[in-house]
């Protein structure tokens, strides 16, 4: 398999994965819909930073420790589950008044806060690392530089993620008018919080 063929094949696989609704989608839609454009882009780029780190570590052979060491996987799994539950419960507890929303805007910050949230959400999910360990090596052509080819393939995933996230941010901004209502803000926080907690519990209970 040549490198060009590998890039197109990997793009198809991770493209389908990118389009599948999940935790990343919920965080991007919620942040964008509430009018926090800079923070939303922070979440987007944070998620892709995590993806790039996972791909780079896999290309270097480091993430193989997740499949070789049960202890390493369990530590990361429980840390990720605890982080997601904590974040989701925080969303569920928020008030829906305009004053509370404005206070939340000033406390949560902008791009930097979003970037940290996106990066941690991605890096604390061991399933992303296991996915890369299982899938990425299969697309690296025989004879190609392993590290360089792995990073190049990961960049394809990052580009697709950014393009799809751009559409999500644009779609969510259409809903801003409706989400200015306190009741709508409460619904958004409750739904997203429940989704995040659900992902955290699923990660904690996963075999």
Automatic annotation (TrEMBL):
Keyword annotations from UniProtKB, A to Z: Cell membrane, Membrane, Transmembrane, Transmembrane helix
PANTHER family linked to this entry: ARGININE EXPORTER PROTEIN ARGO, ARGININE EXPORTER PROTEIN ARGO-RELATED
Domain of life: Bacteria
Pfam family, one: LysE
GO cellular component terms, semicolon-separated: plasma membrane
Subcellular location per the Swiss-Prot or TrEMBL entry: Cell membrane
Protein name: Lysine transporter LysE
Gene Ontology molecular function terms on file: amino acid transmembrane transporter activity
Organism: Kitasatospora aureofaciens (Streptomyces aureofaciens)
Transmembrane segment boundaries: 6-29, 41-69, 75-92, 146-175
Chief location category: membrane
Its membrane topology: Multi-pass membrane protein
């Amino acid at each position: 398999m040549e490198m060009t063929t590998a890039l197109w094949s990997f793009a198809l696989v991770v493209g389908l994965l990118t389009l599948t609704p999940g935790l990343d989608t919920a965080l991007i839609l919620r942040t964008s819909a509430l009018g926090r454009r800079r923070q939303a882009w922070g979440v987007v780029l944070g998620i892709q930073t995590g993806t790039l780190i996972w791909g780079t570590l896999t290309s270097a052979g480091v993430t193989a420790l997740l499949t070789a060491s049960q202890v390493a996987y369990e530590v990361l799994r429980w840390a990720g589950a605890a982080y997601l539950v904590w974040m989701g419960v925080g969303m569920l507890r928020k008030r829906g008044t305009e004053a509370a929303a404005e206070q939340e805007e000033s406390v949560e910050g902008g791009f930097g806060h979003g970037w940290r949230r996106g990066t941690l959400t991605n890096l604390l999910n061991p399933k992303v690392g296991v996915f890369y360990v299982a899938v990425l090596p299969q697309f690296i052509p025989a004879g190609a530089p392993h590290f360089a080819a792995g990073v190049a393939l990961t960049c394809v995933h990052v580009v697709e993620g950014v393009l799809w996230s751009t559409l999500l941010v644009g779609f969510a901004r259409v809903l801003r008018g409706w989400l200015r209502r306190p009741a709508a803000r409460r619904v958004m926080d409750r739904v997203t919080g429940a989704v995040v907690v659900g992902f955290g519990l699923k990660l904690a209970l996963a075999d």
